[in-house]
Amino acid sequence: MMTRQEIFGFTPSSQYSTSVAYFSMEFAIDQALKIYSGGLGFLSGSHLRSAYELKQNLLGVGILWKYGYYDQVRDGKALMKTELIEKSYAFLQDTGIIFTVAVHDSPVHVKVYLLKPEVFGTSPLFLLSTDIAENDELSRSITHCLYDPNEATRIAQTIVLGIGGAMLLDVLGLTPDIYHMNEGHSVSLNFYLYAKYKSLEEVKKRVVFTTHTPEMAGNESHSYNLLQEMSFFYHLQEHEVKILLGMDGEEFNYTLAALRFSGKANGVSKLHGEVSRQMWGSNPNICEITAITNAQNKAYWKDAVLDNAITANDDEAIILRKKELKSVLFKIVADQCGKLFNENVLTIVWARRFAGYKRADLIMDDWGRFVTLLNRTDYPVQLIWAGKPYPEDEGSIGLFNQIATRAKPFARCAVLTGHELHLSSVLKKGSDVWLNNPRLYHEASGTSGMTAAMNGSVNLSMPDGWVPEFARDKDNCFLIEPAADALSVVEKDLQENKNLMDVLENAVLPMYYNNQAQWLTLLKKAATDIVPAFESGRMANEYYDRMYSRKQ
Fold it and tell me: What is the gyration radius of the CA atoms in the chain, in angstroms?
């Protein structure tokens, strides 16, 4: 069996002596390891990087997805389509460990791989796979696709992550002081712990929970009958679960259960903490919900040359490096879209998961004004979109393709595919303006604007998620004024499109083209305001102080 030293390769700092197991459905560690879909993975990846830098006593538990999330490619008409391509990873260590987890009352064999800390500079990460010869084809498929659309498969995935992950830690002799559920996918681990400790209070002493979803519909739930059939409750029966957690009805809600199993919980921005308390506060017997704002790892995301220029307050070097970084991005634009962008033109990027509430097409809502913007010669603008929709979300795939079709005739508009860690990094480094315009109160945190600001891309944003904790309008960013809450969704979209275009035309473009000194001052202010408040070293330390500490 593996020793702690073999797994970690270092002695954790005495400051972080509490041992923590961090459970997440996805981790965005490196472009080469495609086991993530988007923001949740970007967050967990940065957490593991900073935990390693701080030498924290924390390890990750996730799943090795055979096909990853999906590969975003183009069809014959240059529209987006999804491809499932088998992945392989020579840099993962086969631990030799295989154990069984009950799924649908049948044993499923789980093989364990380890991403060692020295490979990518992260905390050790254990990855579980059912895709081995000992299993039948149905069991092998459990760990094929991240967020499988089949309901039974999706439940099986959460059983492997939660119960399987907790079992693995006992097999290794690494039972942690704290189990951290990053989102509710791993909530089944609590039924394993309850069987072990025979007490809800003992479970609460050991479990903390981070919720990321401000929409009730986005919080996963399934029928008790199906979960019972799938062995989700480990050794408990449906009626015992309902009594234990005080949860009635036909549906078992992962988030509510997590809030009743945990000793502490947190939202991922101050605003999201407030929204979460409003969403769940009427339910009795839930734990306290505080807020720890998400953050990103600067060492991973920064361009070192640009960062040095900003630190040295060297404006000439900043201008030169931004043009070089734009040139790198524009080679991808030329390759994918056949359009030659200009490094001297203000470049706006909208890049994140394609979902309706994120409003990728908000800037297009007033089409005449949009076309006028693109045709300006005094203040020229280049626009780039990128992002992956959920593969089953036909509406968002349709929106992606609609934007691609509408943008195609314009020489200064591009829509890119393959939005993963590498492209995300190039977009942040190569953009001048980072556009973020979700419907208000729908974004739990969002972190892309943090890493954009680290790389000299100025935020043009709605004041949602993390943004209100950072933003000072026209000092370190540009804010889009929200429409009145009383308006309908359609009216809000129209008003916020107008507000976005007003800021762009009256503040962003004149400053960029007419007052370079002021633009660079704002850019530098943003970069310095981001760190340390929105750097994941602060976040990783805050989790230890506020969530993992047993003194509170």
Answer: 24
